[in-house]
């Protein structure tokens, strides 16, 4: 069973020879930049360097997947957001939102992934990776889930104000965001991505009622129309919305460290695969490889289907700690 077969079996809850150590979230670290010669910010902007750094997560750190890109604002930028703060050791930040007024919502359009902004850079990186390792490794590409994209083009404060006072504005924003997720995800799949990771970090701020009202339907629509293997990641504490997350019909749910895997398995049952959730800060960044391996084995013991960090790797994660996470899956 190769790494791609193992990962896909895990997402489908089928029999596999062992738990894979794959990462549907960001994998760019300083150590991998130095090992590959592909550094941020160039690896955000150049397809060859993006692919080279992504591949290093496997060839250098032993992670059983490759994943692009390394930040999640490609769609928002193509829709009019302005990014700044391009640094080697950190991801870019939003300097200006695309939607500054209610009237701007009606001017939003669905970007063309093959032409607009830097989205074509990611498509080309997926093509490169698919051509090099697509038969043996899962090639995972990230897309903002609808609510996350709404937050990224409008800002959390305004989105929450819309939710409470102007729900029709939020629904219009979410419609465009859903169409964008579908178009971008399909383009990534056509370019060779074998799985799409839907990033919805902001959804953990919503309780079950609001998640069901605003996120569940649009995310499920995107998942069903993409028609490929999907993983949904929501940061922070999602215990109250675990059932709703499973109802999106994704194949895998990536959960943060604050959510116990055994609890998640009990709540969700066999509806979706559980991915996670080694602590990215206290363990992967700050502790010894032995501590990483111990926590990773505990995750496997609790029944995780895919071993991964609880969120994206910090750029300062030591290489030996990435290797220790991968080693735990091979020796458990």
Describe the structure.
This protein has helices at residues 3-11, 30-36, 42-45, 47-59, 74-78, 102-105, 119-133, 146-154, 156-165, 167-190, 208-226, 242-246, 261-268, 280-285, 289-301, 319-331; strands at residues 66-68, 82-84, 93-96, 139-144, 195-199, 229-234, 252-255, 273-278, 306-309. The model has no long low-confidence stretch (mean pLDDT 97). It starts with a helix and ends with a helix. Strand 6, helix 12 and strand 7 (252-255) form a beta-alpha-beta unit. It contains 16 helices and nine strands. The chain has a single domain, classed as TIM Barrel, CATH 3.20.20.210. Helix 2 (30-36) packs across helix 4 (47-59), helix 8 (146-154) packs across helix 9 and helix 9 (156-165) crosses helix 10 (167-190). With 332 residues, the protein is an alpha/beta fold. The strands form two sheets. Strands 1-4-5-6-7-8-9 form a seven-stranded parallel beta sheet, sandwiched between helices. Strands 2-3 form a two-stranded antiparallel ribbon.
Quick structural gist:
The protein is α/β, with parallel strands linked by helices.
Shape: globular
Q: How many E-type strands?
A: 9
Helical residues, percent: 40-55%
Uncertain segments of ≥5 residues (pLDDT<50)?
none
The helix/strand series, from N terminus to C terminus, equals HHHHEHEEHHEHHHEHEHEHEHHEH
Judging by the overall fold, what is the CATH architecture? Alpha-Beta Barrel
| Number of helices in the DSSP assignment | 16
Biggest sheet details = 7 strands, parallel
**Total separate domains:** 1
**Level-1 CATH class name:** Alpha Beta
Tell me the β content.
5-15%
Q: Kindly report how far apart the N and C termini lie.
A: 16 Å
Radius of gyration: 18 Å
